[in-house]
Amino acid sequence: MSAPAQLVARTGAHIAERLALSAATAEGAHTATAEVPGWLAEHRRAGATVVRRIPFAGLDHWSFAPDTGDLRHSSGRFFTIEGLHVVRGGAEWQQPIIVQPEIGILGILAKEFDGVLHFLMQAKMEPGNPNLVQLSPTVQATRSNYTKAHGGTEVRYLEHFLAPRPQQVLTDVLQSEHGAWFYQKRNRNMIVEVDGDVPVHDAFRWLTLGQILRLLRLDNVVNMDARTVLASAPALPAETRALSSDSALLAWFTGERARHDVRARRMPLREIAGWQTDEHSVSRVDGRFFRVVAVSVEGAGREVAGWTQPIIEPVEHGVVGFAYRLFDGVPHVLAHARVEGGFLDTVELAPTVQCVPSNYAPAGAEERPPFLDALLNASPDRVCYSTVHSEEGGRFLNAESRYLIVETDEATTPTQPPPGYHWVTPGQLNWLAGHSRYVNVQARTLLAVLDAALQGGGTH
Amino acid sequence: MSAPAQLVARTGAHIAERLALSAATAEGAHTATAEVPGWLAEHRRAGATVVRRIPFAGLDHWSFAPDTGDLRHSSGRFFTIEGLHVVRGGAEWQQPIIVQPEIGILGILAKEFDGVLHFLMQAKMEPGNPNLVQLSPTVQATRSNYTKAHGGTEVRYLEHFLAPRPQQVLTDVLQSEHGAWFYQKRNRNMIVEVDGDVPVHDAFRWLTLGQILRLLRLDNVVNMDARTVLASAPALPAETRALSSDSALLAWFTGERARHDVRARRMPLREIAGWQTDEHSVSRVDGRFFRVVAVSVEGAGREVAGWTQPIIEPVEHGVVGFAYRLFDGVPHVLAHARVEGGFLDTVELAPTVQCVPSNYAPAGAEERPPFLDALLNASPDRVCYSTVHSEEGGRFLNAESRYLIVETDEATTPTQPPPGYHWVTPGQLNWLAGHSRYVNVQARTLLAVLDAALQGGGTH
Question: Do the domain assignments include residue B227?
Answer without folding.
Answer: yes
